[in-house]
Amino acid sequence: MSRSGHPLFARAFHRLAALMERDLAKHRRALLAGLSGRVIEIGAGNGMNFRHYPGAVREVVALEPDPYLRSKAEAAARAAAVTVIVRDGVAEDLAPEDVGFDAAVASLVLCSVADQGRALAQLRCALKPGGELRFLEHVRAGRSRQGRIQALLDRSRLWPLVAGGCHCSRETVAAIVAAGYEIEQVRSFDVGPSWMHTNPHVLGTARPTPPPDPPRSPPAAQAPRPAPA
What we know:
Layout: H1 7-32, E1 37-42, E2 57-63, H2 67-79, E3 84-87, E4 101-107, H3 116-126, E5 127-138, H4 145-156, H5 158-162, H6 172-178, E6 181-189, E7 201-208
Parallel strand pairs: 1-2, 1-4, 2-3, 4-5
Antiparallel strand pairs: 5-7, 6-7
Helix pairs in contact: 1-2
């Protein structure tokens, strides 16, 4: 989503969120299960994830650029069982202090960021060594007829225009790998009818790939010993 937000979409999304939650609540719980420490969540929307964070989470920093949805997220944060700090912000441009997190959460947002690669790179920098990325996103339905329709909707710019910048044909799992993460687990599921252009969804965990070991320097050559007198 753009920094300025999408006012009409934001209001429609907030009204539809309760209906979506009938299918998504169990997946949100699975997305966040076992997290602890400090977490950064991008594209927090109206804060539907906040109620599902486990008690071992010490703090959630939640970024949301749309003013209307951010106000709803602030209300959800006050009702959450864990500490949630809601801020204006986008994934592609994290603040310098956004570092040292145990986990990053991307939930129904990587479809709408302007630059997936940059957003994922920023999250890598935000994670402490050993940190993890949790993601719940809808993705392209392969090379099937449904996938071709998704690509057509994105190319026409019609769906992104009415859906707050959402793109329904992004191959997000491949983008995560290309951004330097290793997928630890991922599973696919549908929300609503399987034929909808916003299916399938994926839920998974990834960790930044460790940097390669630096090349070893060859041993220094030893000076020859002087010949005995």
